[in-house]
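Now for a concrete sample entry.
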Amino acid sequence: MPLDFTAIDFETANSSTASACAVGMARVRAGVVVETAGWLIRPPFPHDRFFEINTRIHGIREQDVADAPTWAQQLPDVVAFIGGDIAIAHNAGFDMSVIRRACEATGTPCPDLVYACTVQMSRRTYDIPSHRLPAAAAAAGYTGFVHHEATADAVACAHIAIDAARRAGAHDITTLAETLGVRLGRLEGFAAATETVLS
């Protein structure tokens, strides 16, 4: 199988992971970023308050999302972009929690996704003092992106997985996970609303 996957990144309006206010995605085919997508999201009530600390981080304000589609309206587009890919995220537990919690907050069916975390990949690939996204991306040879811009972060995340696979000699994400000892997780449907670890 080729190195195909979709990297995803969310920004949130406040400390609640249900407060998704932006999403960015990067599609990878045969180890190359071939398409990106990203847009603003109107966070679901009652998770729609914008905290100053979050706005300072990503620059998104309440008025910026006032006319944006809601989570329930946009989730089908997120799921369609990912398709049958394994989803990759930097600190994937956070991004998968955004999906699960936003679905719970809106009563929206939660998608089934298999995912992997590039923080874990970075820790098993690079000898660096910090594995935050900018540092891990730099170790992968990818620099100069705007951190906390969701699409830019997704592309940076994708480059970490691509470089980790190159160094490990892995031709697909499943083999990369096995080689590095990184477990694939699964975000299960809304009825279960759980995250499990695949063996």
